[in-house]
């Protein structure tokens, strides 16, 4: 097939020659594909996880993963990250404090992460539910959640080109989108965002971070809620539904959780009064 002229793809994508059939006619064209590579996270020489991820913003990913997995207690425990290309993918070699290495050895596991997978390789039920901080009660205008979801589309450069990635954003109280990260995996996008919020030019102080909210282009799974809480952010606004375990977890740690945030509509699953909505009734007891 003769290569077709096409603009260069954004970071995290590459071009492929395809044949598209539309309205009954077929024609060759260039198409942008989101990259997805195995990324190994190696803490002081110990391989802890191998995730399939988009190879961009990987220093943010390393820090965010360490924080949201509870391996790093704070950003200062990560001294440096080396990104090394190897035959089968990328190694992120993290130089971490002794305390982090001790936590890793205490909770040693191997993850084989897939794009839609959150807890692959966890070797005990006790590791699933972590002790989470109690988050502050922050009030929001419901319109701020809708504004964030609408504006987030303009920031999704990789998604516009490929149609294959998720995004996670930190937004100010009024819904202004401030920091965004993209990845083929929703968990990875959130980890990259958490890392970006605590390093580099887009870092946001903890007190300010807690007063904003996270906006995601996916469902709100249990792990997305847990990662948000570990990031110290008071609310999570998802475009799709949460799971039952995600709702229970949000209610337990003080996280305002909203799903189906589309236009001016949303569903509040916890602490609805913080959105100026009627308070929720008692929860259904566990069976």
UniProtKB/TrEMBL annotation:
> Cross-referenced SUPFAM superfamilies, in alphabetical order?
Cytidine deaminase-like
Q: Which Gene3D superfamilies match?
A: 3.10.20.10, Cytidine Deaminase, domain 2 (3.40.140.10)
Locate the active site: 117
Which cellular compartments is it found in? Cytoplasm
A Pfam family name for this chain?
FdhD-NarQ
Q: What does this protein do?
A: Required for formate dehydrogenase (FDH) activity. Acts as a sulfur carrier protein that transfers sulfur from IscS to the molybdenum cofactor prior to its insertion into FDH.
For this entry, the protein name equals: Sulfur carrier protein FdhD
């Amino acid at each position: 097939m003769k290569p077709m002229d096409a603009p260069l793809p954004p970071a995290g994508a590459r071009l492929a020659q395809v044949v598209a059939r539309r309205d009954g006619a077929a024609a060759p064209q260039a198409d942008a594909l989101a990259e997805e590579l195995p990324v190994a996270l190696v803490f002081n020489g110990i391989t802890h996880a191998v995730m399939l991820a988009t190879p961009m913003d990987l220093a943010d990913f390393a820090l965010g993963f360490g924080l949201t997995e509870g391996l790093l207690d704070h950003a200062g425990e990560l001294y440096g990250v080396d990104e090394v290309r190897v035959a089968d993918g990328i190694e992120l070699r993290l130089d971490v404090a002794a305390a982090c290495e001790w936590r890793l050895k205490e909770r040693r596991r191997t993850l084989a992460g897939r794009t839609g997978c959150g807890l692959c390789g966890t070797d005990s039920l006790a590791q699933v539910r972590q002790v989470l901080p109690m988050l502050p009660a922050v009030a929001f205008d419901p319109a701020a959640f809708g504004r964030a979801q609408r504006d987030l589309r303009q920031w999704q450069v990789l998604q516009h080109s490929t149609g294959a990635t998720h995004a996670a954003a930190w937004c100010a109280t009024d819904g202004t989108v401030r920091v965004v990260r993209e990845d083929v995996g929703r968990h990875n996008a959130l980890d990259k965002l958490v890392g970006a919020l605590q390093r580099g030019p887009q870092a946001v102080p903890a007190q300010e971070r807690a007063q904003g909210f996270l906006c995601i282009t996916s469902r709100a799974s249990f792990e997305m809620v847990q990662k948000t809480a570990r990031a110290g952010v008071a609310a999570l606004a998802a475009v799709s539904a949460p799971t039952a375990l995600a709702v229970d977890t949000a209610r337990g740690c003080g996280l305002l959780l909203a799903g189906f945030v589309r236009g001016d509509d949303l569903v509040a699953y916890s602490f609805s009064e913080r959105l100026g909505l009627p308070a929720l009734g008692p929860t259904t007891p566990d069976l």
